[in-house]
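About this split. The held-out portion is used to measure sequence recovery: a designer receives only the structure tokens and must propose an amino acid at every position. Recovery is the fraction of positions where the proposal matches the reference. Here is one held-out target exactly as it appears in the evaluation file.
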């Protein structure tokens, strides 16, 4: 972790307090992103909830009220270097575009021609707050000039668990009364991830390939899920928890 100055730490504390205060029906608001922009200077700050199974943008928030080019991006999700990095390594920590691809490789890529160059983006810093390959919730900071520093990356990594907790708390509030209390809370993060993929229609073999585990391990996780939820099969498990997934 990059050594941060006292003023950086003070800024982090102030931002976290502001982010909690702004959270209501939505965990992330344009004002939340504006506050993050004050902490880490960027030309654009956004928050994106992605469904990687169906390659679609579920929700998007930025400071300009746009859709973030959802139609275009949904077609090139798999080509985005930071998305590919998260999917390959399940690494949702604060990461710069330049950490995963060289400038030369980027300039010769499809993602640059179709996404970065038209938007005038030369640098990106991204962090995920949900450890799921099926659906990701990422904070995305972009610059038209220069790159993000090690300090910027360290600051975003420091606020990331707080942003994750705000999102989790908001979801729990929204789900109150929608299902039996504690149903999904009984599952581990890996079991929840597998149940999401089952709900998306993937077979055990497809889930195993996506998560880099064996089909036998997937079956063991599903058996544990059935036992915890008190159901006998995948259809019943989905039906019991679909309103909270």
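Reference sequence for scoring:
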């Amino acid at each position: 972790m990059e050594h941060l100055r006292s003023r950086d730490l003070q800024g982090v504390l102030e931002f976290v307090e502001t982010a909690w205060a702004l959270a209501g029906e939505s965990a992330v608001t344009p004002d939340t992103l504006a506050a993050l922009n004050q902490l880490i200077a960027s030309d654009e700050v956004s928050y994106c909830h992605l469904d990687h199974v169906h390659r679609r943008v579920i929700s998007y928030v930025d400071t300009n009220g746009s859709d973030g080019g959802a139609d275009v991006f949904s077609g090139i999700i798999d080509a985005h270097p930071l998305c590919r990095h998260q999917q390959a390594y399940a690494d949702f920590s604060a990461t710069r575009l330049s950490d995963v691809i060289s400038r030369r490789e980027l300039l010769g890529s499809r993602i640059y021609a179709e996404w970065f160059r038209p938007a005038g983006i030369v640098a990106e810093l991204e962090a995920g707050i949900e450890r799921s390959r099926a659906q990701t919730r990422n904070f995305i900071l972009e610059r038209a000039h220069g790159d993000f520093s090690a300090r910027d990356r360290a600051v975003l990594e420091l606020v990331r668990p707080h942003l994750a907790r705000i999102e989790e708390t908001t979801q729990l509030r929204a789900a109150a009364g929608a299902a039996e209390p504690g149903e999904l809370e009984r599952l581990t993060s890996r079991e929840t991830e597998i149940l999401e993929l089952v709900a998306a229609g993937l077979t055990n073999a497809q889930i195993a390939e996506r998560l880099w585990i064996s089909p036998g391990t997937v079956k063991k996780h599903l058996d544990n899920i059935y036992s915890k939820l008190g159901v006998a099969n995948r259809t019943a498990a989905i039906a019991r928890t679909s309103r909270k997934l």
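Annotator remark: Residues 6-175 form a domain with the Beta-Lactamase fold (CATH 3.30.450.40).
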